[in-house]
Amino acid sequence: MLGKDQILSILNEAVQSSPADQTELVFDGEEFSLTHVAESQIQQNLFHDDSVIVVRLVIGKKIGIASTNKLDVKSIRAAIDEAAKIASFQEDDPIFESLTKSPTAQEVKAFYDDTAGYSPTDRANAIWQINKIAARQNLKTAGAYRTVTNTVAVMNSLGTEQFFRGTQAELSLTVSGEAGRAGYAIACSRDVNQINPGAVAERAVDKAVRDVNRMSLPSGEYTVLLEPPAVGNLLLFLGFMGFGSGPFVQHRSFMAGKIGLEVAGRNFTVRDNAYHSAMQGMPFDYEGVPRQTVALVTDGIAEGVVSNSYDTRMMGTGAESTGHAHIATKSFTPYPKHMVMEGGNASVADMIKSVKRGIYITHFWYMNYMNPVKTMVTATTRDGTFLIEDGEVKGAIKNMRMQQSILEAFSNIVMLSRERELYPQFSVKMLVPYALISKFHLNEEVA
């Protein structure tokens, strides 16, 4: 693993040698370890250590992008030459003005030695503990335990210089048994010591033990109690569909034309906050712009979207990048990666007691878009779906298909829990509560 001084020295020497009007170099490194489990057996131990340097050159109004995974100055200079050649074939970009000149971002405590050093033996011991708990109930385990160390450095010819190194641990678990019974749980943290494999196993096993003799419910509108992973599934797609500057400036976002207007219930508030103690996120983006904490929706009122420097030039006077640019080789629009949803005042037990008849949902599976502007999505319930009746969680029910507007769901929030959990998916982390929601659309499934 190269150190901070080594990486910045290599980037600085390469930037100084560039013939372009402006030059940006991004170092993006990852050390990734994973133990994959199926049928209560370790199927795979994987480790990879890979780094890439992405070059973005500006020559006049033309932009060229190239990359190399060779980390010496000579190879980076070759990538610079390649980017210059690519730029020569480009049309002028009338919107692009300049790379960014940014101050040094604040430091964030995101690197933990124990996470970086967590070994295959450590993961195997955790899996052994999980398997032992599941076996008591004749259940099999499947899932993955992964640890990652990410290193990112950004340097450009305008004086921007940023460096970040952070760790992440994530344990996802599904336990299953006869007749298709199943339960799911997940945990993640920058500090692997904050993950309790036994507690994760107990949560998943508890659902699987109760997931027997599934009954069928007819299609209709239901009151649902969503666990944090189910809330996170909805919030993730909401972020993809409308909280980024790309669809916003193209008027494809549900936020377009709605800033300052009510888009959800008054008890729905979400911000993108990389600095929250549960996130400890990278404090700058891949252009080197320090991340801002962005109010997305406050008390149901649309407030703003996350952006990069390019999109802000189409957003009007006074708009500035919120520090959410992706690396130059990615064409994705900016989207929030550290969403913090406000909770409420209820306990989970009180939320359950308040329900006369409803459905308890662990998480959703295979979610897909139906109508992004109307925030319509579809998915099935999965790995623990139960009937709530007269204030108690009763028997299991067959999985049901959800066809639902996410904003409509977040307009019908009845209660939110005080308790919040960190949920990771697709490189996004979300701190989310349990949510009791009325008038939620579910269709009967055959399985």
Written account of the structure:
The chain is an alpha+beta fold and 447 residues long. The chain folds into 2 domains: 176 residues, 2-Layer Sandwich (PmbA/TldD fold), CATH 3.30.2290; 235 residues, no CATH class. Helix content is 22%, strand content 39%. It contains 10 helices and 17 strands. The strands form 2 sheets. It has a 6-stranded antiparallel beta sheet. It has a 5-stranded mixed β-barrel with strand order 7-12-13-15-17. β9 and β10 form a beta hairpin. The mean pLDDT is 96.
Strand order of the largest sheet: 3-2-1-4-5-6
Separation, N- and C-terminal Cα atoms = 48 Å
Strand content: 35-45%
Return the string of H and E elements.
HEEEHHHEEEHEHHEEEHEHEEEEHEE
Radius of gyration: 24 Å
Helix percent reads 10-25%
Tally of individual domains: 2
* Record field, number of beta strands: 17
Estimate the global geometry from the Cα principal axes: globular
Given helix and strand content, the structural type is alpha+beta
Mean pLDDT across all amino acids: 96
